[in-house]
């Protein structure tokens, strides 16, 4: 692709471009959520869309997470393709009943009669000093639930491309956008579009250890890999992309090559996604391992407000480097 | 006559105590009548009857705990004649009694605990290093570990292998070293593996005709030999017989989810290796043929990959056109089975009630009795034969 | 075309109302019997005593309309047109059940009649119903969605969020509160500060009405008025049907929370009993007709049981089918 085919963009603009393209491509698509219209979206993702598409398709909702998420599920059953935005994953707990008890169960419980093609987007993660009720990474909870698909775009291409594929999917799909990524800038091809949502991606090749991250931790894993390379340690970096269903084959193939793995997860360690990935490696690649699987997770505290404590609680490149060294014994 | 039973009012109800009879023997009842009260964990519940008739006899006294489904009363249906006066005795429900004490075990179960080396003094060895050492017959004792906490890792085993001069596949093939390696592996096999052998003659006339027809339309480089059919038939059958596919390591058989077939290839100038064709069960016949050609070429050039040498989960040895009827193989440890195929030859054969010439091939199985038994082996070999006779399914 | 806002008081229609209520009553009685015999398991909530509500409301719906109900929904499914055989097979958990046996008593679904459950989270069906109505409104379809729930749901946040959103967006939903006075064992007065439930809807500017839920004609009339107003573009409507369940909440319930005398009083007002007496006193029903309907219903229930008994268990290999959709619907 020539330089002329590349455009400068940000993660926020890529998500907005994806929503705009979906609204243009399919009249059944509409966006609804708190402050998505007049305010322009809590993280300014939907800014400008109300003027372009009108209040029928860019719907501001009351602060009623259960009702508008449930309405999205019902509208999907009724033939629409709703994109429901929840401000943050912490607020999604008010809609957990609708997501877990209804969206995830209907198809199976009805014997295959009613599938729910809804897409639910929400912000996740810490780093903006928003303290303990706006900063958590609970995507692992959703990844626990059969009947849901869970995505975590970590790159511009995925921010631009995952939504279209999610809307095509007949199942409920939840997309987690990490708050620290919205300002991430870079280049994207002018014709960037839909991307697959069923495969993890190897973002960096290496022979000594596999770093497994997603969403907000991908950049930190890559940063740690660069630091390790300076010392002659070549880390391979796997971006999970899809948290449910997990792409076990890609994880296992990488670990079988490098014989070591460190999982980097902004969720808490106990009972979390990192535990699941570690268990998968035990089940599928135990005899390939040269060291116990390492984990770098968020400290087991509610996320605190002051910057130094917040940063101390989160996975950081230095901790990833240390975890890698521990698996190598050097 | 029918029985009125203790109803089940919830999945968590196991029994109930009959508190009161609201109907007595001789009284008429109709569908929906409440005839008893039963005390449950959730309180007293009135129990209704679902048929009409007359209570012939109450079988349970108030105060009795009765399991769900046990008869509480006998009911004579409307129009049914009254019971004769001399009836066979229906044993009354036993009153609740304590459950009998469990029988004493016939012999003491306590056994002395076997001494095990303390974990603190045990050398750390990574799973990957253990796996390689087991496959290559390297002793871990004495190796110097360079992993976390001084653990022996795979690289340490590889270094040891390089030092002892064991054939490393990256360096080509030394006939003398190869003979030593074969000697060590085969001696270990016969020493450690309790082999059993089965043979079966297979009519492959139709299979060969199918192959000939297929090849008729192809240029020589694209033509299929019989070998990929044999590999595919074995690979597909193994999916249903996991006890022949995997490794016997550290006193236990570990079946393998993948099917990597070691394919015995003779080397000019003597010697034999059996490198793996990976995932043979999911490769098309043409892919298998290509893989086979590639393996033979690289084997003879001494350019095999280590994974090809260590990954096989089973071995297939085919005599091709070398003219003998069959072979009984020596299993390559730590595998647990070797499937052998002789040279197909024209033989007098009974087809229907006539004798005629047919192409017949002898298939054999050498298997490890620690991992499987002859009965399963026979089923396996028959299933391989059946698949071979239906080449369209391969 | 008759005026759709009024019940048709023809002989044939009145007999049909009676027949529908009797189908539900006899089906539920058979379910109780089969539960006691361990043919039906799990939780079983029967609709005996409340038949007039589902039968009356369903009269007002058109084929393209949707219905969302609760875990006490056998009556709604029957009145909506779900066949009795597959419904009974669902009670058994057989593959021939209307939800393939996956849901059981609490999760009846049927795409053909747009019957969306069978929701066993109290209040959980309301957001779903407004979403179905939102889709109809956005697509310009004339369908409405009927959403049934008990008075217990009124205490849930989802009730208030959904009423507000439905009114705010003027969605074509008919909310039907089946007020049977007890949320399991908790009496209305013990759980609500305002026990006049239809007044709550008015606080969201949803026109509402309380009707005698034991009177099938009154329910049908109120539902027809409400549905006509919704179809005319008037936004949501709310019906509070005051009713009573004659049997326990579920099978395993000793009914410690209410007096038997209270139950007896309500039984004298039973929807089938009162309707039958009214029809007879007006010369619109003869004993021979009742016998005929009963025989017909009994035969239908018997053949539903035969159908369920003859059904098959879904193969265990299919356990994980339909966790995710196999293809685009």
Description:
The complex is a heterotrimer of chains A (330), B (394) and C (329). Chain A has two domains: 7-189, 3-Layer(aba) Sandwich (Rossmann fold), CATH 3.40.50.970; 201-328, Rossmann fold, CATH 3.40.50. Helices cover 37% and strands 22% of the residues of chain A. Chain A has 13 helices and 14 strands. Chain A has helices spanning 11-25, 49-53, 65-77, 89-92, 96-103, 106-109, 139-143, 156-168, 218-229, 248-258, 273-285, 307-313, 317-328; strands at 6-10, 29-33, 58-60, 81-88, 119-124, 149-151, 173-178, 185-189, 201-204, 209-213, 235-239, 242-244, 261-268, 294-298. Chain A is globular and about 60 Å long. Chain B has helices at 127-136, 154-164, 175-192, 205-216, 227-238, 285-301, 306-310, 374-388; strands at 2-5, 15-21, 28-29, 34-40, 43-48, 53-58, 65-67, 71-77, 195-203, 246-249, 252-255, 261-263, 265-266, 272-273, 276-277, 314-318, 337-341, 345-351, 354-368. The longest helix of chain B is centred in the middle third of the chain and has 18 residues, at 175-192. In chain B, strands 9, 12, 15, 16, 17, 18 and 19 form a seven-stranded mixed β-sheet that branches. Chain B has three domains: 2-77, OB fold (Dihydrolipoamide Acetyltransferase, E2P) (Beta Barrel), CATH 2.40.50; 124-164, Irregular (Dihydrolipoamide Transferase); 175-393, Chloramphenicol acetyltransferase-like domain (Chloramphenicol Acetyltransferase), CATH 3.30.559. Residues 85-112, 115-121 and 167-172 of chain B have low confidence and may be disordered. Chain B is an alpha+beta fold and 394 residues long. Helix content of chain B is 25%, strand content 25%. In chain B, strand 10 and strand 11 (252-255) form a beta hairpin. With 329 residues, chain C is α/β, with parallel strands linked by helices. Chain C has one domain (11-310): Rossmann fold. Helices cover 46% and strands 11% of the residues of chain C. Chain C has helices spanning 11-36, 51-58, 74-80, 84-92, 125-138, 157-168, 188-191, 197-203, 216-234, 260-268, 271-281, 287-310; strands at 66-69, 115-118, 145-150, 173-179, 182-183, 186-187, 208-212, 237-242. In chain C, the strands form two sheets. Chain C has a six-stranded parallel β-sheet, with helices on both faces. Chain C has a two-stranded antiparallel ribbon with strand order 5-6. Chain C is globular. Chain C starts with 10 loop residues before the first helix and ends in a 19-residue tail after the last helix. Chains in contact: A-B, A-C, B-C. The interface between A and B is medium-sized, with 12 and 15 residues.
């Amino acid at each position: 692709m020539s330089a002329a085919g590349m455009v400068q963009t940000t993660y926020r603009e890529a998500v907005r471009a994806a929503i705009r393209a979906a609204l243009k491509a399919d009249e059944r698509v509409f966006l609804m959520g708190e402050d998505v219209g007049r305010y322009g979206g809590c993280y300014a993702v939907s800014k400008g869309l109300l003027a372009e598409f009108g209040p029928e398709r860019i719907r501001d909702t009351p602060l009623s997470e259960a009702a508008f998420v449930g309405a999205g599920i019902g509208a999907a059953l009724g033939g629409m393709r709703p994109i429901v935005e929840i401000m943050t994953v912490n607020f999604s707990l008010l809609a957990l009943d609708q997501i877990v008890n209804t969206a995830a169960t209907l198809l199976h419980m009805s014997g295959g009669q009613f599938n729910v093609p809804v897409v639910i987007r929400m912000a996740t993660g810490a780093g903006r000093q928003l303290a303990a009720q706006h900063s958590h990474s609970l995507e692992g909870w959703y990844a626990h639930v059969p009947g849901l698909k869970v995505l975590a775009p970590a790159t511009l291409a995925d921010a631009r491309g995952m939504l279209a594929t999610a809307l095509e999917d007949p199942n409920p799909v939840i997309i987690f956008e990490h708050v620290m990524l919205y300002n991430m800038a870079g280049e994207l091809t002018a014709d960037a579009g839909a991307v697959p949502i069923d495969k993890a991606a190897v973002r960096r090749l290496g022979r000594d250890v596999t770093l497994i991250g997603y969403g907000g931790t991908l950049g930190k894993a890559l940063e740690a890999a660069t630091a390790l390379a300076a010392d002659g340690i070549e880390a391979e970096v796997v971006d999970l992309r899809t948290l449910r269903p997990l792409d076990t084959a890609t994880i296992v193939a990488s670990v079988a090559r490098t014989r070591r793995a460190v999982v980097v997860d902004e969720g808490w360690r106990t009972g979390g996604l990192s535990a699941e990935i570690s268990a998968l490696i035990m089940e599928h690649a135990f005899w390939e391992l040269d060291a116990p699987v390492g984990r770098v997770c968020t400290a087991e505290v509610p996320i605190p407000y002051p910057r130094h404590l917040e940063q101390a609680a989160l996975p950081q490149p230095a901790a990833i480097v240390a975890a890698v060294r521990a698996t190598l014994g050097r | 006559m029918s029985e009125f039973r203790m109803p089940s009012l919830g999945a968590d109800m196991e029994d109930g105590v009959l508190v009161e009879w609201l109907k007595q023997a001789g009284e008429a009842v109709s569908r929906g009548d409440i005839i008893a009260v039963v005390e449950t964990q959730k309180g007293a519940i009135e129990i209704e009857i679902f048929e009409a008739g007359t209570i012939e006899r109450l079988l349970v006294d108030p105060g009795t705990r009765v399991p769900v489904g046990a008869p509480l009363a006998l009911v004579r249906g409307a129009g049914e004649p009254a019971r004769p006066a001399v009836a066979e005795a229906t044993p009354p429900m036993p009153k609740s009694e304590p459950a009998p004490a469990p029988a004493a075990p016939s012999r003491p179960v306590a056994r002395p605990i076997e001494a095990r080396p303390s974990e603190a003094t045990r050398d750390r060895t990574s799973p990957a290093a253990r796996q390689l050492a087991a496959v290559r017959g390297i002793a871990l004792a004495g190796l110097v570990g360079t992993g976390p906490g001084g653990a022996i890792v795979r690289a340490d085993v590889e270094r040891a292998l390089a030092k002892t001069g064991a054939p490393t596949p990256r360096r080509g093939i030394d006939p003398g070293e190869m003979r030593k390696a074969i000697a060590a592996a085969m001696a270990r096999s016969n020493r450690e593996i309790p082999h059993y052998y089965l043979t079966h003659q297979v009519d492959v006339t139709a299979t060969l005709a199918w192959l000939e027809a297929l090849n008729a339309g192809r240029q020589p480089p694209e033509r299929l030999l019989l070998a990929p059919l044999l590999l595919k038939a074995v690979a597909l059958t193994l999916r249903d017989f996991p006890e022949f596919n995997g490794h016997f390591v550290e006193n236990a058989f570990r079946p393998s989810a993948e099917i990597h077939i070691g394919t015995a290839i003779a080397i000019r100038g003597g010697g034999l290796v059996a490198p793996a064709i990976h995932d043979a069960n999911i490769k098309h016949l043409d892919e298998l043929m290509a893989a086979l050609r590639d393996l033979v070429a690289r084997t003879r050039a001494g350019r095999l990959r280590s994974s090809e040498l260590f990954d096989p989960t089973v071995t297939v040895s085919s005599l091709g056109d070398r003219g003998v009827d069959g072979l009984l193989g020596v299993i390559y440890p730590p595998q647990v089975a070797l499937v052998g195929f002789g040279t197909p030859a024209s033989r007098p054969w009974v087809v229907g009630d006539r004798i005629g010439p047919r192409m017949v091939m002898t298939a054999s199985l050498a298997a490890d009795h620690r991992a499987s038994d002859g009965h399963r082996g026979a089923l396996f070999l028959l299933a391989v034969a059946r698949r071979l006779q239906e080449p369209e399914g391969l | 075309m008759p005026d759709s806002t009024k019940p048709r008081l023809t002989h044939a229609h009145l007999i049909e109302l009676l027949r529908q209520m009797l189908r539900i009553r006899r089906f539920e009685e058979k379910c109780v019997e089969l539960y006691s015999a361990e043919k039906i398991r799990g939780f079983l909530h029967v609709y005996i005593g409340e038949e007039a509500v589902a039968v009356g409301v369903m009269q007002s719906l058109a084929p393209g309309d949707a219905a969302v109900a609760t875990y006490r929904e056998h009556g709604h499914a029957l009145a909506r047109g779900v066949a009795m055989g597959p419904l009974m097979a669902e009670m058994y958990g057989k593959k021939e059940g209307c939800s393939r046996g996956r849901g059981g008593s609490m999760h009846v679904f049927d795409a053909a009649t747009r019957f969306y459950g069978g929701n066993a989270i109290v209040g959980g069906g309301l957001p779903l119903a407004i979403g179905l109505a939102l889709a109809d409104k956005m697509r310009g379809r004339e369908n409405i969605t009927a959403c049934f729930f008990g008075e217990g749901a009124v205490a849930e946040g989802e009730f208030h969020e959904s009423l507000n959103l439905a009114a705010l967006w003027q969605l074509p939903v008919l909310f039907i509160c089946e007020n049977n006075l007890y949320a399991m064992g908790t009496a209305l007065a013990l759980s609500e500060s305002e026990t006049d439930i239809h007044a709550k809807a008015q606080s969201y500017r949803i026109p509402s009405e309380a009707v005698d839920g034991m009177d099938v004609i009154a329910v049908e009339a109120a539902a027809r008025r409400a549905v006509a107003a919704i179809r005319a573009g008037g936004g949501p409507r709310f019906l509070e049907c005051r009713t009573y369940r004659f049997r326990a909440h579920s099978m395993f319930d000793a009914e410690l929370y209410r007096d038997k005398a209270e139950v007896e009083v309500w039984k004298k007002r039973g929807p089938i009993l009162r309707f039958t007496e009214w029809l007879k006193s007006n010369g619109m029903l003869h004993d021979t007709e009742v016998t005929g309907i009963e025989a017909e219903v009994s035969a239908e229930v018997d053949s539903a049981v035969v159908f369920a008994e003859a059904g098959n268990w879904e193969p265990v290999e299919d356990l994980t089918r339909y966790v995710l959709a196999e293809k685009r619907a």
